[in-house]
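Why show two proteins at once? Because comparison is the fastest way to build intuition. When a single record is shown, students tend to memorize it. When two are placed side by side, the eye starts asking what differs. So, the first record is below.
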Amino acid sequence: MATIIYLLCAATALACACLLLRSYRTTRHRLLLWSGLCFAGMFVNNLLLVLDRVILPEQDLSTWRLGAALLALMPLLYGLVWEDD
């Protein structure tokens, strides 16, 4: 059951990233770009979670997952702090 939930979370993050980046491509609102990049990073984070918990349970990938989550949040943080409308 946990594997299904991990994969659904990854699919949701990928869908959000695609929708946000597609909307950015049509409207050119910069916050959509930063949000889309954040969700793309969250997709990578969820893939690492599947690798860590399901495919390679004997290895600890928690440091890589936390690093991916940090890198995923950086574009959104930049967009929220430095971009102005």
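Second record. Ask yourself what differs from the first in the token line.
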Amino acid sequence: MLQSSRDVEGLLRSIKLLVVEDDYDMRKVIRSLLTMAGAKRIFEAADGDSGLEMARAISPDVIFVDWEMPGLKGPDFIKAVRAPGKFPLPDVPIVMLTGHVERRRVLEAMRLGVNEYLCKPVSAKTLHDRIVSVFANPRPMVRIGDYYGPAPRKESTDPIMRAWAKQCECAWLD
């Protein structure tokens, strides 16, 4: 596991990150922030469809995806990825990185199976911390009804997410 700063540095140098973002300038900003955070292997896709193709081709370790994109939008991208048997990497950590801060969107993203939800603008430190978090504190993937994604967080206040968390019968609920 990640026990030292050297472990974290090695992780950030070795993992493949995929940024799925339609805005060229924002992709460049995110790339720069990820580089400042220590990442070395960063791939980009300009829309959801090319993001799915890129994910199949490179098998990323983490995907950052925007909400609003032409064609395949972020939520539909997440649904496509979180489809065991249909997509080759249904367990890949997904970080929603968006300018939308409405509670309903955060809850929808949770219900779709994102690991983390970050609002733009974001700092290199925040990106670094989220990448480390998905590896240092991984949540098991669960299937509950038509949901497939990381086990819901214990502290969720959303009644649907709490019900899903209870169905997981995870030890952290006690």
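One difference worth noting in the second protein: The radius of gyration is 16 Å.
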